[in-house]
Amino acid sequence: MTEIVLMSGSVRDGSYNSAVVATLRRIVDERFEGVCATVLHPVELPFYDQDMDAADGSEAVLRMRRRVAAADVLVISTPSYNGAAPGVLKNALDWLSRPYGESCLDGRTVAVTSASPGPRGAVDAQPGLVEVLGHVGALVVEHPPVAVSDAEELITDQGEFEDVECLAALESLLRAALATVREAGTSALAA
Ligand code: FNR
Predict the structure, then answer these.
(1) Nearest alpha carbon to residue 19 among 115, 144, 110
(2) Which atom, in ligand 1's list, is nearest to the CA of 118?
(3) Cα–ligand 1 centroid distance for 133 (angstroms)
(4) Using a 6 Å cutoff on CB, does residue 15 contact ligand 1?
(5) Rounded to whole angstroms, how far apart are CA atoms 120 and 124?
(6) Number of domains observed in the structure of the chain
(7) CA spacing 20 to 30 A to 16: which of 10, 107, 156, 161?
């Protein structure tokens, strides 16, 4: 079974990025055979603390590291907070980037998307996030930017997206991620 873990960069109820994550999970369930998707919650992590890290002091961190290490793909959907990904996401990436030399992100395939109620879909938050991911050795999926714009109009009462173009773009990103894993030969997919 190929495993995808999903992460939203927003912690608020009714988040459009969490709706993207819910939509990605549904797309995987409905359209991808032999693939499962689960959601990780960066808000469960404490603020990064190097002393706590050295003492292996957080079960939530260890659990998230294990889950990312076991996954073939991580997909992140980020809002733009003043042109960048929110601190909760950077915090999660900092935890996942350690222990030094043993990061579960090193060589991990990661896809980035974004959403906002505005016309640009928070696409301006993606480059900074990609830069951090590159810094920690992740294999960032090459794909034209996928950004869900005008999310307020598109979101359904179920807190997901049904728009055909939106679904096609998200599915395309997922397929590119799985192709990246295959090409990199980093999972059972390559066998
Ligand atoms: C925002 N928002 C925002 N939107 C945008 O398109 N560009 C931006 O630079 C910002 N900056 C920003 C900063 C802060 C601190 C907040 C709280 C909000 C608006 C943002 O796109 C909107 O609140 C989204 O709904 C946030 O994403 P979620 O929570 O819906 O996933």
Answers:
(1) 115
(2) 6
(3) 21
(4) yes
(5) 8
(6) 1
(7) 107
